[in-house]
C-alpha cells in the first residue's frame, strides 16, 4: 500500500480547511456566537454523505466524476450540455475559490511584510504555478498541511485557556438562528465545508490510486468520514475562539484583527502565528483548487488527465490567473473570501444532483450503488441548500 493511497480523505479535509474556513468560521463566531453551529453540523454531515458517494463512484468505476458522467449519458446533446455545465460550474466556482485562497494567504503574509495584498497574491499565484508546473508539489503540500494542523491545535488550546462561558454557549447552541442577516454567513459556512470541487478531486484520487483493488472500499469510506469529522471539529474551535474574543464586544472582526482571537495563548506572537497559518492554509488550497478543476474539466471534455499534458495545465493555469485577477480588482479581502464560499454554496446543488444521478444509474457500481437512505439524505441536503439560496436571492 502506497503512502499516497492512505491520504485521500485527509487531502480533502485539508483542502476545505483553507483561509475561507478560518475567515468564515471566525465571522460566524464573532457575529452570531454559537447560534449558527447548526449550520456547521449540517455542513459536516452533508459533506460526509456526498464525499462518501464520490469515494464509491471513484472506487467502483476507476474513473473521475466527469468521466463517469460523460459515459452514462447516451444522448449526445444532453452529454454536451452537461459537460458544459460541469466545465462552467467548476470553472466559475474554483476561480472564485482560488481568489479567496490567494487573498487569505496574502492577508497572512501582508501582516508580516506589508507590501500589499495584491502584490502578495501575485507572488503566491506565481508560486502555485511553479509548484503545479513542476509536479513536485506533494512534499510541500504535506508540510503546509502540517502547519495548518499546528494552527488548528493552537485554536483548540486557546479555546481551552480562554475560560469559555459554557452556559452561554449551550444556550446559543440550542437557539439556532436563520434570519436574513445570517443567510450569507450560513451559505458561506456551507460553501467552505461542502466544497463542490472536492467531489471531483476525491473521486479522481480514488480512481487513480486504487486501480488494483488492494484496499476495500470501506477503508476509504471510513477514512473520509473520519477526516471530514476532524475538519468539522477544527472549524468548530475556530468559531468558538472568535466567539470568545468578539461576540458581544464593541470591537468588530475584520481582516486586520483576525489574529486577536489567539492572543489569550500566544500574546504578542498571535499575529505572526496566525499569519503563517493563513499562508499555509491558503497556499495548500490554492494548489488543490486548480488541480481539482483540471481533473473535472479534462474529464468532461474527454481530454487526458495527465498533469504534464497541455490541456490539464491550461485549465489549472487559467484558474490561477483568474483568481489573481480577482484579487487585483480591489475587492475587500474578507468580502472576496466570503463571496467564494457563498458561490460554492450556490453551485453545490447542481453538482450534488449530478452525483446522485450517477450513483443510481452507473452500471459499474454494483453493491456500491446508492440505497434509498443515501438518496433521501442527498436530496435533503440539496433541498435545504436550495431553500437557503432562495431565501437569500429571492
Automatic annotation (TrEMBL):
<feature type="transmembrane region" description="Helical">
    <location>
        <begin position="76"/>
        <end position="97"/>
    </location>
</feature>
<keyword id="KW-0812">Transmembrane</keyword>
<dbReference type="Pfam" id="PF01566">
    <property type="entry name" value="Nramp"/>
</dbReference>
<feature type="transmembrane region" description="Helical">
    <location>
        <begin position="34"/>
        <end position="55"/>
    </location>
</feature>
<keyword id="KW-0769">Symport</keyword>
<keyword id="KW-0813">Transport</keyword>
<feature type="transmembrane region" description="Helical">
    <location>
        <begin position="334"/>
        <end position="360"/>
    </location>
</feature>
<dbReference type="GO" id="GO:0034755">
    <property type="term" value="P:iron ion transmembrane transport"/>
</dbReference>
<protein>
    <submittedName>
        <fullName>Manganese transporter</fullName>
    </submittedName>
</protein>
<dbReference type="GO" id="GO:0015293">
    <property type="term" value="F:symporter activity"/>
</dbReference>
<dbReference type="InterPro" id="IPR001046">
    <property type="entry name" value="NRAMP_fam"/>
</dbReference>
<dbReference type="GO" id="GO:0005384">
    <property type="term" value="F:manganese ion transmembrane transporter activity"/>
</dbReference>
<keyword id="KW-0472">Membrane</keyword>
<dbReference type="GO" id="GO:0005886">
    <property type="term" value="C:plasma membrane"/>
</dbReference>
<feature type="transmembrane region" description="Helical">
    <location>
        <begin position="225"/>
        <end position="247"/>
    </location>
</feature>
<feature type="transmembrane region" description="Helical">
    <location>
        <begin position="109"/>
        <end position="132"/>
    </location>
</feature>
<feature type="transmembrane region" description="Helical">
    <location>
        <begin position="372"/>
        <end position="390"/>
    </location>
</feature>
<feature type="transmembrane region" description="Helical">
    <location>
        <begin position="310"/>
        <end position="328"/>
    </location>
</feature>
<keyword id="KW-1133">Transmembrane helix</keyword>
<feature type="transmembrane region" description="Helical">
    <location>
        <begin position="139"/>
        <end position="162"/>
    </location>
</feature>
<feature type="transmembrane region" description="Helical">
    <location>
        <begin position="272"/>
        <end position="298"/>
    </location>
</feature>
<feature type="transmembrane region" description="Helical">
    <location>
        <begin position="182"/>
        <end position="205"/>
    </location>
</feature>
<dbReference type="GO" id="GO:0015086">
    <property type="term" value="F:cadmium ion transmembrane transporter activity"/>
</dbReference>
